Model the fold of this input.
Amino acid sequence: MIRKCFTIASAVMFALLLVGNASAAPRPKAEDPIARLAVKASPMKANALEKLYAGRTWKWTSGGGYFSAEKTKVWLLPASRNKFAAQVRNGTHWSYAEGTWRATDDGELCMRASWFSNDYRAGTQAVTCFLHRETNGVIYQKPSIGGKWYVFRNNPVRKDDEVRKLVNGDRVSTAVARIKASGR
Done:
């Protein structure tokens, strides 16, 4: 009997806590105007994403990632993934990655790579994805997990657009090869 009363009391307390938390929750902020525009735009198709990224390096503050146009074989699957390489250096700390990238027809670009660094020699697997939506030549982008939508490319392109950090050619693989050869 005591156990039954305790169970009922626990359930009632849990329900009260839920109701209390629901009424105490902060009101959501007004939605970001860029997010509203991005949601109205259409997801980019895989071929449009491949045209945008293939054969280019995305320059970052302390390194970059190269999206090869060359297809690579993954396990027993036919050649269906593009090679990806990245390199980051902050002072004496360095990291590099090797893996693949892919684009989907729902506007997602994903990089799957093993990262190595002078702090941790064993490869750490990481998957990073970005969502892309486009309307009238304007491309919106956001990390697929968390993050906010932002304008990746305006129409016409502006000097501070993120798309300008996508530069032609491989600006990464030589540095990755040098790091690997040095045994660091």
User: Anything to note?
Assistant: The beta strands are 42-43, 56-60, 63-72, 81-90, 93-103, 108-117, 124-135, 138-143, 150-153, 166-168. The mean pLDDT is 83.
